[in-house]
Every structure is written in structure tokens, then in C-alpha cells.
Amino acid sequence: MSEAQQALRHWLEGRIERWQWLEKQCRLQGGGRQDSSRSSIEFIEGFRALGSDLSLSRAVFPESRLTRYLEGLFARAYEQVYRRPPALWHSLKDVFLHEAPAMVYDIRGALAATVALFLLSIFCGWWLVYSFPDLVGLFASQKMIDTVESGDLWTDDLLNILPSSVLALSIIANNITVTLFAFVLGAFYGIGTIYIISLNGLMLGGVFAFTALHGLAGRLFEFIIAHGVVELSVICLAGAAGVHLGESLMRPGNRSRVDAFRTAVRRAGALLLVAIPFLVGAGLVEGYISPAAAFPLSTRLVVGLAFGLVFWLVLTRSFWRQHTG
Amino acid sequence: MPNELRIHAADATELTMEFAGLGSRSYAFIIDWHIRFLFALVWLLVVWLVMARGGGFESFSGFFEDDGGLHDYQAYITLLPALVIYFLYHPVLEIAMQGRTPGKRMAGVRLVDVNGQTPGVAALLIRNVFRLVDGLPAFYAVGCVACLVTERSVRIGDLAAGTLLVHEEKLSARALERARLVSGNRKLTPADQELLLDLVERWKTLDRAIRVRLAVRFLEKLGEQVPAAANSKRLNQVLYVKLQQLAGEPAH
Fold first, then answer.
1. pLDDT of residue B134
2. Which residues in chain B touch residue A72, judged by CB atoms under 8 angstroms apart?
3. A235 and A158 in one domain?
4. pTM of the model
5. One domain for residues A65 and A95
6. In angstroms, what is the C-alpha Rg of chain B?
């Protein structure tokens, strides 16, 4: 064995254990483990030595698996040394208290346009079905149509078919999916979002018109009001966020489209994070209060309006903070 | 087209990370999909079996009926964990495993941000929300097309979140030991050592005819005598032993 190779083997013998130790530390520290200052110093020393090992490996074994392994290990160790301390709780608090309200303020134009589109779609759906009742087949299933024509609402028997818990879970999953769709489809230059908002508006208007034709609109309103204020607010808000994504792609300004899109997603995503707990709440109300005959209209109105008020108070902090100093 | 991410660390060290393509990405996803689906299904079946023994439910659908079926708390115990496993598998594991999931680990890939570091929680949530778009209209068609046409082989979710999928070279303790042993062979240049280690490591996963051909060519390149054998099976064994000897390993 030549002298150089002996040195190489000696180097490898001495270092392998150290690299494995660093690898283990990266794994542990990535999991959020708190370390003593002594072990931190030891880690930093190991990281420095790893830098030298990487240089040597690149010189002796360029393009080898060993070099790639050391590069990967160096990147992970580098991250552990230079990363910012994790502050998940503070970030979450910041999103609820500042980022989301500020975003609502910034996209107020898009929000107003989305609400207007939603109301217009409701009106169109209502007018279509009220004028041409046969068109209700576009918005409702045959089973729903048959139930309404026999003088009942399809919501009357909900609790006989499914228990409140299963109903609430399926509603929560469905509402979160619709909300997220309304948001992410903004990636298609906002067109996907406009489609979702219009479709939901048309359905709501169409179904209300059909129940009105059979004298059941009041009962449908009674069913919807407790959960609907928050649910429809969230749909509009997600729609506004989706429109904002579309706008970032159409008018990226000085930045590249990808950069503008990424920034818009990050900021609008804060809104959804705040909206999701409210959707969970709305799903529980829809599972336990809305279909239960025991709750009178007054209770439903109080629940719906109070829940909606809390939602909008949380998300309009920027407005009322500015006006109250 | 550049297929690697170059990062300039604070101490002037330059690091490179190779982007993972559609193949590695799909491989990882298929493994993950099966894991989460099986876990959710197993949970549902186990809870159903446990509760059915006490509650006398005759069928799986009867389990969810209101009249005589589940109590509310039973429904939550049954459904909630299954839904959580299925829908939150990717975001939760990617956050907990620093940009990895079991599938990604098996495929040898991980997620990083544009600086080569583990993406933040917000970025990981965003890339998972955008699965809704990437999954359209079915079988991740939009995501696959995006991977094929984008410079860094990313789907829409990665574009939105600023994340990248890169290959991660992992060396097991055994592979490191092999590297140490082979470094003592003075007949081999570093490039030959790399080839030899690669061949020995992948020996059992290669087709027999291919690995025999590669081993013969490698030995000829080194000027080593190619051992003779009565048949291809025997030649395969003899060649493997020879390669192990060259790598400094005790032959098994």
C-alpha cells in the first residue's frame, strides 16, 4: 500500500464514526431536541471538520458517492448551525392576529368583487329556476327534487340517515375541500375560482327558488342560517384569495410570474389557515343544530349571526384597529 | 438544462443537489399512497371489529346508522383518525421528518427550499394544499405535466410553495465500511474504487447476465484475470467473490 493510500485509509478510519455521529445529531436536532451548550459546541466543531473532509473528498474522490454523501451531510449540518430558532407558536399567533386581517384589508377589492359575483350568481340561479322550474335538474339530484315535490325538505330526515357526528365530519371534510378548491383554482389565472363561486351561487339560488315554488323556502332558510353565515363567508373569502392568485399571475409587476404567484399564495394562505377552524365549527353546527327540530328559528338566528360576527371581527381587525387608533 | 441546485454556503463552500425527476417523485408517491391507505383501512377495520364484538353490528354499513348504530364518541374514534391519517399524512410527516416521508426516504429524495434547507411549515402546507390542482383531472395529470415541462421538475404545488425535490445520498454503515476497505487497494484509482463499490452494492439487484458482463469488463479494464467457470451460475458466483476480494471484503 502506498503512503498516500495508507493516509487515505487512515483518514477514512478516523472519520467514518464522526460522520455517523453528526448524521445522528442532525436527525435528533431536526426533531426539535434542545441541546446543552457543550454538545452544541461539539456539533459545531464536528461541522467544521466535516467541511475539511468534504474538501479532501472532493479532491480525491470527485463525483463519488462518498463525496455526494458528505455534501448532503454538510448541507444538513449547515442548516442546523445556521437556521433560525423554531417559533411555530409565534408564527401562528402572528397569522391570526396580524397577517390574515392585513390580507383581508389588502384584498378588499377582490373580496367585494367576489361577493358581488356570488350574489349575482344566486340571483341568476333563482331567476332561472323560478322562470323555468325544469332547470332545477341542473342543480339538484332527482331524489332531492322528489322530496321537495312531495312537500318535504331533504334535510328533514338527515338525522335519521346519519348520526350528527358522521354528518358533521362529512360536512367538515366537504366544506374544507370546496374552500381549498376555490382558492387553489385561482392558479388558472383566477378562472377556476370564478367558476367555483359562480357554480355555488347558481346552486344556492336555484335550490332556494325551487323550494320557494313549493312553499318550503322559509324552512330551508331555517336550516341554513345557523351554519350558513360562516360557510358562505368562507367561500367568498377563499374566492377572493383565489382571485388574488389569478391577479398575481396576470399582473406580476416587477417580479417574475412565479415569484409574484409564490408571494400571493403565501399571503393568501394565511386567510385559509384562519378560516379552517371556523369551517370545523360550522360543520359541527350543521351536524348538531341545523338538522335538529328542537332548535327554534330564534336560536338558529342567534347562533348563525353570533358565529358570523366573531368570524368577521377576527378577520377585520385591520379595519377597526385603524379606526380606533 | 441544469439538473442540480447550486448553493453557496456562508463559508464560501459550494454545494450541489440533484433534482429528482418524475420517476423518483412517482415512486415515492405510490409508496406513500399505499402506506396511508392501508393504515387508514386497517384502523377502520380494527375499530369496527373491536366495537362490533361489543355492539353486535352485523354489517359495516349498519355500523354508521343512527338508529342502534354508533354513539357519537364511537363515530369520532372510528372516523376521525382514519380521516387524519389519509388527509394529513403528507403534511404532518413532511413537517416531522424534515421534508421527507417514508416513501420519499425509500426513493432517496427529500424536499428542500431554494436555499437547500428544510422548507418551513407554511411552505409544506401550501405544497400539499395544491395537490388539489396537481391531481386534476385524475392521476396527478397536471402535476406530471408540470414536472415534465418545468426546468427543476416541480409540480404546481412546489412552484407555489418554493420547494424542490432533490436526491439525497445516504450511505449505510456497511457502505461506509466498504469505502474504507476499498481505499486500501493500491491497484485501483479512486474512479475504479467508485465503480467497484457501485457494482458490489448493486450486484444482487442487477440481472445476472448484465452483472456478469459488467464484472468481466471491469476486470479486463484492470488487467485482472477473468476467472473461468463451468456455467453462467458458477461464473456469477466466482466473479462476485473476486470483486469482493478486490474491495477488500472477506468473501462469504
1. 96
2. 17, 168-170
3. yes
4. 0.87
5. no
6. 25
Cα B56 to chain centroid distance, Å, stands at 43
Average pLDDT rounded to a whole number, residues A242-268: 95
**pLDDT greater than 90 at residue A84:** no
Instruction: Look at B180 and A9 and tell me if their CB atoms are within 8 Å.
Output: yes
Q: Do A97 and A70 fall into the same domain?
A: no
A113/A76 same-domain check: no
On whether the CB atoms of residues B83 and A169 are closer than 8 A, the answer is yes
Number of domains in chain A: 2
Backbone CA torsion sign across A297, A298, A301, A307: negative
Contacts of A61 in chain B (CB under 8 A): 190, 193-194
- Segment B33-45 shows an average pLDDT of 94
Residue of A1, A13, A63, A68 to mutate, interface with B, max B Cβ within 10 Å: A68
Do both A12 and A134 map to the same domain?
A: no
How many CB atoms are closer than 10 A to CB B142?
21
A272-292 average pLDDT score: 93
Determine the residue of chain A that is closest to B195 in CA distance.
Answer: A64
Answer for the pair B7, B19: CB distance below 8 angstroms, yes or no. Answer: no
pLDDT in tens, B54-94: 665 555 665 555 555 567 777 788 888 988 998 999 999 99
The span from the CA of A86 to the CA of B118, in Å, is 12
Nearest chain B residue to A2, by CA:
B186
Question: Do A70 and A103 belong to one domain?
Answer: no
ipTM: 0.88
Express each pLDDT in B142-164 by its tens digit. 999 999 999 999 999 999 999 99
Q: Which domain holds residue A35?
A: 3-82
Question: In chain B, where are the structural domains located?
Answer: 4-167, 173-246
B161 CB within 8 Å of a chain A CB: yes
% chain A with pLDDT above 90: 63
Least confident of A21-25, A58-62, A201-205, B217-221: A58-62
Asked if A69 and A122 sit in the same domain, the reply is no
Give yes or no for a contact between A245 and A187, defined as CB atoms under 8 angstroms apart.
yes
Q: Cβ separation of B133 and A185 shorter than 8 Å? A: yes
Residue A120 shares a structural domain with residue A58: no
Q: Is B159 close to A20, i.e. CB distance below 8 A?
A: no
Peptide bond into B81 cis (omega under 30): no
Q: How far apart are CA A262 and CA A259, in angstroms?
A: 5
Give the pLDDT of residue B69: 57
Q: Is the pLDDT of residue A85 over 90?
A: no
- Which residues on neighbouring strands pair with residue B166, listed in sequence order? B19, B110
**Cα of B31 to nearest chain A Cα, Å:** 22
Q: CB–CB of B13 and A181 under 8 A?
A: no
The last residue of one of the domains, among A59, A82, A105, is A82
Last residue of a domain, one of A82, A112, A137: A82
How high is the mean pLDDT of chain A? 89
Listed in sequence order, the DSSP H helices in A61-87 are: 65-82
Residue of B nearest to A166 (CA): B75
